[in-house]
Amino acid sequence: MPGARITRGQRVTLRTVESEDVPFVQRASADPDIRYPLGTPLRNRAQLDGLVEDESADRFLVCIEDDGGPGRPDDEDLRRVGVVTVKDADYKRPELGYWLVPEVHGEGYGTESVGLVVDYVFREYDTPAIGAHVFAFNDASRALLESLGFDEEGRKRKFMFVDGEHRDMIQYGLLRSEWRGQE
Protein backbone atom coordinates (compact mmCIF):
# COMPACT_ATOMS: atom_id res chain seq x y z
CA MET A 1 0.00 0.00 0.00
CA PRO A 2 1.26 3.49 -0.73
CA GLY A 3 1.86 5.93 2.10
CA ALA A 4 -0.51 8.56 3.39
CA ARG A 5 -1.41 11.45 1.12
CA ILE A 6 0.39 14.65 2.15
CA THR A 7 -0.90 17.02 -0.51
CA ARG A 8 -2.42 16.97 -3.95
CA GLY A 9 -1.91 19.21 -6.95
CA GLN A 10 -3.79 19.32 -10.23
CA ARG A 11 -2.15 16.19 -11.63
CA VAL A 12 0.07 14.70 -8.93
CA THR A 13 -0.27 13.56 -5.35
CA LEU A 14 2.57 13.54 -2.86
CA ARG A 15 2.57 10.60 -0.44
CA THR A 16 4.97 9.49 2.25
CA VAL A 17 7.66 7.10 1.03
CA GLU A 18 7.12 3.75 2.76
CA SER A 19 9.10 0.52 2.81
CA GLU A 20 6.72 -0.88 0.16
CA ASP A 21 8.01 1.80 -2.22
CA VAL A 22 11.67 0.72 -1.94
CA PRO A 23 11.53 -1.68 -4.95
CA PHE A 24 10.25 1.18 -7.13
CA VAL A 25 12.94 3.55 -5.80
CA GLN A 26 15.66 0.93 -6.26
CA ARG A 27 14.67 0.13 -9.87
CA ALA A 28 14.31 3.79 -10.81
CA SER A 29 17.51 4.94 -9.13
CA ALA A 30 19.47 2.28 -11.02
CA ASP A 31 18.35 3.81 -14.34
CA PRO A 32 21.30 5.75 -15.83
CA ASP A 33 18.89 8.48 -17.00
CA ILE A 34 18.16 9.16 -13.33
CA ARG A 35 21.39 8.09 -11.64
CA TYR A 36 23.84 10.13 -13.73
CA PRO A 37 22.03 13.50 -13.51
CA LEU A 38 21.85 13.01 -9.73
CA GLY A 39 25.42 11.78 -9.42
CA THR A 40 24.32 8.93 -7.16
CA PRO A 41 25.85 5.48 -6.96
CA LEU A 42 23.86 2.28 -7.20
CA ARG A 43 22.18 1.44 -3.89
CA ASN A 44 21.13 -1.94 -2.59
CA ARG A 45 17.89 -2.75 -0.76
CA ALA A 46 19.41 -2.33 2.73
CA GLN A 47 20.77 1.14 1.88
CA LEU A 48 17.40 2.24 0.53
CA ASP A 49 15.56 0.79 3.52
CA GLY A 50 17.85 2.94 5.68
CA LEU A 51 16.88 6.04 3.70
CA VAL A 52 13.17 5.35 4.20
CA GLU A 53 13.68 4.94 7.95
CA ASP A 54 15.87 8.06 8.22
CA GLU A 55 13.78 10.72 9.94
CA SER A 56 16.22 13.57 9.22
CA ALA A 57 14.61 14.19 5.81
CA ASP A 58 11.08 14.54 4.47
CA ARG A 59 10.61 12.19 1.51
CA PHE A 60 7.63 12.37 -0.81
CA LEU A 61 6.56 9.80 -3.37
CA VAL A 62 5.24 11.53 -6.51
CA CYS A 63 2.15 9.70 -7.73
CA ILE A 64 -0.39 9.92 -10.47
CA GLU A 65 -3.62 8.44 -9.17
CA ASP A 66 -6.84 7.24 -10.76
CA ASP A 67 -8.97 7.35 -7.62
CA GLY A 68 -8.49 10.96 -6.43
CA GLY A 69 -9.82 10.02 -2.97
CA PRO A 70 -8.22 11.00 0.30
CA GLY A 71 -7.23 7.68 1.89
CA ARG A 72 -4.79 5.04 0.82
CA PRO A 73 -5.56 3.83 -2.70
CA ASP A 74 -4.85 0.34 -3.89
CA ASP A 75 -1.61 -0.19 -5.78
CA GLU A 76 -3.50 -0.61 -9.05
CA ASP A 77 -4.98 2.89 -8.62
CA LEU A 78 -1.54 4.44 -8.25
CA ARG A 79 1.34 5.17 -10.59
CA ARG A 80 4.61 6.00 -8.85
CA VAL A 81 6.63 8.42 -10.98
CA GLY A 82 9.30 9.92 -8.70
CA VAL A 83 10.54 11.21 -5.37
CA VAL A 84 11.10 14.68 -3.90
CA THR A 85 13.23 14.99 -0.75
CA VAL A 86 13.78 17.83 1.71
CA LYS A 87 16.97 17.56 3.79
CA ASP A 88 18.32 19.63 6.69
CA ALA A 89 15.07 21.52 7.33
CA ASP A 90 15.41 21.27 11.12
CA TYR A 91 18.78 22.95 11.53
CA LYS A 92 19.74 24.96 8.44
CA ARG A 93 18.42 25.98 5.06
CA PRO A 94 16.39 23.10 3.63
CA GLU A 95 17.75 21.49 0.46
CA LEU A 96 15.60 19.89 -2.22
CA GLY A 97 16.42 16.77 -4.17
CA TYR A 98 14.12 15.27 -6.79
CA TRP A 99 13.82 12.88 -9.70
CA LEU A 100 11.13 11.48 -11.97
CA VAL A 101 11.10 8.37 -14.14
CA PRO A 102 12.17 9.17 -17.72
CA GLU A 103 8.76 8.19 -19.14
CA VAL A 104 7.20 11.37 -17.66
CA HIS A 105 10.04 13.84 -18.29
CA GLY A 106 8.89 17.03 -19.98
CA GLU A 107 5.22 16.65 -18.98
CA GLY A 108 5.22 19.17 -16.11
CA TYR A 109 4.97 16.66 -13.27
CA GLY A 110 8.35 17.73 -11.89
CA THR A 111 7.48 21.40 -11.76
CA GLU A 112 4.17 20.67 -10.05
CA SER A 113 5.74 18.24 -7.56
CA VAL A 114 8.63 20.49 -6.58
CA GLY A 115 6.26 23.46 -6.32
CA LEU A 116 4.05 21.49 -3.91
CA VAL A 117 7.09 20.63 -1.80
CA VAL A 118 8.23 24.27 -1.74
CA ASP A 119 4.74 25.17 -0.47
CA TYR A 120 5.08 22.44 2.15
CA VAL A 121 8.51 23.64 3.33
CA PHE A 122 7.45 27.26 3.72
CA ARG A 123 4.26 26.17 5.51
CA GLU A 124 5.90 23.66 7.88
CA TYR A 125 9.31 25.19 8.61
CA ASP A 126 10.33 28.62 9.80
CA THR A 127 13.00 29.11 7.16
CA PRO A 128 13.75 32.23 5.13
CA ALA A 129 14.94 30.26 2.10
CA ILE A 130 15.21 26.88 0.41
CA GLY A 131 17.98 25.58 -1.82
CA ALA A 132 18.82 22.93 -4.39
CA HIS A 133 22.00 21.66 -6.07
CA VAL A 134 21.99 20.75 -9.76
CA PHE A 135 24.74 19.58 -12.07
CA ALA A 136 25.53 22.18 -14.72
CA PHE A 137 24.81 19.70 -17.51
CA ASN A 138 21.27 19.01 -16.24
CA ASP A 139 19.45 21.66 -18.29
CA ALA A 140 15.98 20.28 -17.56
CA SER A 141 16.45 20.44 -13.80
CA ARG A 142 17.94 23.91 -13.97
CA ALA A 143 14.98 25.08 -16.06
CA LEU A 144 12.55 23.54 -13.57
CA LEU A 145 14.09 25.45 -10.66
CA GLU A 146 14.29 28.70 -12.60
CA SER A 147 10.63 28.36 -13.65
CA LEU A 148 9.72 28.22 -9.95
CA GLY A 149 11.69 31.39 -9.19
CA PHE A 150 14.95 29.92 -7.91
CA ASP A 151 18.08 31.97 -8.57
CA GLU A 152 21.57 30.68 -9.26
CA GLU A 153 23.69 31.45 -6.20
CA GLY A 154 27.00 29.82 -6.98
CA ARG A 155 29.01 27.13 -8.72
CA LYS A 156 31.25 24.40 -7.35
CA ARG A 157 33.66 23.72 -10.17
CA LYS A 158 34.62 20.12 -10.96
CA PHE A 159 32.58 19.07 -7.92
CA MET A 160 32.01 15.38 -8.67
CA PHE A 161 33.09 12.70 -11.11
CA VAL A 162 29.91 11.66 -12.97
CA ASP A 163 29.62 9.54 -16.09
CA GLY A 164 33.29 9.81 -17.00
CA GLU A 165 33.89 13.52 -16.25
CA HIS A 166 34.34 15.90 -13.37
CA ARG A 167 31.17 17.99 -13.34
CA ASP A 168 30.29 21.45 -12.03
CA MET A 169 27.52 21.71 -9.43
CA ILE A 170 25.26 24.78 -9.37
CA GLN A 171 23.64 26.01 -6.16
CA TYR A 172 20.14 27.50 -6.45
CA GLY A 173 18.14 29.33 -3.81
CA LEU A 174 14.65 30.71 -3.31
CA LEU A 175 13.71 33.20 -0.62
CA ARG A 176 10.38 32.89 1.17
CA SER A 177 9.58 36.50 0.15
CA GLU A 178 10.11 35.57 -3.51
CA TRP A 179 7.82 32.53 -3.42
CA ARG A 180 4.45 33.54 -4.79
CA GLY A 181 4.61 36.89 -3.03
CA GLN A 182 4.89 35.43 0.49
CA GLU A 183 6.41 37.41 3.31
Description:
By secondary structure, the chain is of the alpha+beta class. The chain has a single domain (5-178), classed as Aminopeptidase, CATH 3.40.630.30. Helices cover 27% and strands 34% of the residues. It contains 5 helices and 8 strands, in the order ββαααβββαβαββ. Strands 1-2-3-4-5-6-8-7 form an 8-stranded mixed beta sheet, with helices on both faces. Strand 7 (151-162) and strand 8 form a beta hairpin. The longest helix is centred in the middle third of the chain and has 16 residues, at 109-124. The chain is globular. The termini are far apart. The mean pLDDT is 86.
In short:
The chain has 183 residues and is an alpha+beta fold. Helices cover 27% and strands 34% of the residues. It starts with a strand and ends in an 8-residue tail after the last strand.
Give a quick set of tags describing it.
183 residues; alpha+beta; Aminopeptidase; eight-stranded mixed beta sheet; 5 helices
Return the CATH architecture.
3-Layer(aba) Sandwich
CATH fold annotation: Aminopeptidase
Continuous helix count: 5
Tally the beta strands.
8
In total, the number of domains comes to: 1
CATH class: Alpha Beta
What is the CATH homology-level superfamily?
Gcn5-related N-acetyltransferase (GNAT)
Itemize the secondary structure elements and their pairings.
Elements: E1 5-8, E2 13-16, H1 22-30, H2 32-38, H3 45-53, E3 57-65, E4 78-87, E5 95-100, H4 109-124, E6 129-135, H5 139-147, E7 151-162, E8 165-175
Parallel strand pairs: 5-6
Antiparallel strand pairs: 1-2, 2-3, 3-4, 4-5, 6-8, 7-8
Helix pairs in contact: 1-3
